[in-house]
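[[Local backbone shapes]]
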Amino acid sequence: MKSINFKNIFITGLFVLIPIIVTVWVIKTLLSVVNNLILPYLEEIGIPTPHIPGLGIIVTLSIIFLLGLLAQNYFGKKFLAYVESLISKIPVAGSVYNATKQTMETLFSKKENFSKVALVRFPHQDTYAIGFIANQLKICDEDYYIVFVPAAINPTSGFAIMVKKQDIIITDLTVEEAMRTIVSGGLVIKKHIKLLKDNQVPAGEVSANGE
């Protein structure tokens, strides 16, 4: 009779349970954030808001939809442009608003946000880090790439570094493959990584100044 390996069964169950728990936690957190995004401000200005579960989500989504309709209308665009011009004149608030708007436009643009995955010497010359090529520029007539090096496990934070073009090692990793490696802390990785010919980003895949 085959003996039951309780250790393997437990580890298998753990691998099944943890992704489910993480998924439920993320969804619950997102719904909680959306639910409390608008209602507290409505209460502060004196608008009565009944405490009905899910009301905040409905109100937030409705406001987003109405703002979307307004932004696509000719007169709505004029009105929003006027509001933006007023906000831009306010110290600090204008800088925060413009930076946030530019970030949102970059993240949700139809163009791919990162063109290629590269290896860069970071944080010192003896180690390599996975980075995403975000842009390119010239410094004293020398070509540089702006590379975003995300933090392991939490890729929403990281470092934006400028690397000389000749020091970039372009790989055949896709953005999705590299992101899986970073989020898993290196546990999930492509076993054989090839280098792009001549270690150069194909022309047209990265444009200067993000254009």
In short: The chain is about 45% helix and 15% strand. The beta strands are 117-121, 128-139, 142-150, 158-164, 169-170. The two ends are 68 Å apart (CA to CA). The first strand starts at residue 117 and ends at 121.
